[in-house]
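Retro notes, item 3 of 5
We never archived the inputs for the 4'-deoxy-4'-aminopyridoxal-5'-phosphate complex last cycle. Fixing that now. Sequence and ligand:
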Amino acid sequence: MTRPTYREIAPYRADPRPCAIDLSDNTNLWGAAPSATRVLRSAGNASLARYPEPYSETLKDALARYAGVSSSMIVTGCGSDDVLDSTIRACAEPGDAVAMVDPTFVMIPQLARANGLHVVRIPVGADADVDVERLTAANAAITYVCSPNNPTGRSVPRSDIQTIVERARGVVIVDEAYVEFQGYSAVDLVSGNARVVVARTMSKAFGLAGARVGYAIANPELIVEIEKARGPFKVASHAADAATAALDTDVDWVRARVGDAIESRERVASALREIGLAPLASNSNFVFVPIANSAAIASAMRTRDVAVRPFAGVPTFGDALRITIGPWELMEPALAALREAIAECA
Ligand code: PMP
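Structure as it came back at the time:
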């Protein structure tokens, strides 16, 4: 009954059990941008009977001001998952390839396969660095590069992104889901190159994962094609209003929380080193910690009410945990749970 391509795609499943300290999904553990919450609290239900703006024009204006581009260079979506999916569908035919580093964002192979594409994986180097030569030699219709990369937390140097953009044959997607933690962006590469798409989200630094608002920045001609693949009415009215308020009012709040996350991250990294682990230097709001037996350790932490994300058999690094960074009050008990889990699994 279903497309053969779909059979190998496993549905995304998250652990449904409630958890006191959830460090598994890289969301903002300081909470949501405050004006977004205010907008949602005061929202009446009059607008619920009508459709939202078809392509979230008001939200686009706010995103354009925030990103320093024109509104015609923005496409929005139901999370950046939706924007990535639409971009892949707009820019590649079934049978084409998506080239990406391994490891990277787990949804990319899923979205590629769902759109009939195959995936070329280029393992990261010893320092989690991108092999630009091999990535571009794949000659793929779409080259995906994530900076900072999920799950390694490592930024891709701007010069590498520039080289990828110059050498890649097809469209280059630069995923900047965690850009606020990185301090530099590839957005300026868009104006000089019709094939660059920078994907971003309100789910991380802005703390609006539940609102499901993502966006991408590209040349206006390409935006129109991505919007055709996306379809109208993808962002709910209240989600768009909440995100617009956050962009207009809460940028200083976001910057302050980014500072908090970086401070907490460095404290966590040194605590991890003290217990003999070697977290990768992170440019994001999570740390990647190579550790044998990561699934068992994550599960022992889960029984202590702490959720982290285990990875198995990662190229170059083997097993690892990805730990989202939150306020120190959450990280302290999480580190205690990790120490106990390591002792239990030894
Ligand atoms: N890109 C990356 C690199 C991510 O880590 C995530 C979320 N985990 C997304 C995109 C998707 O974010 P959302 O759909 O919530 O906007």
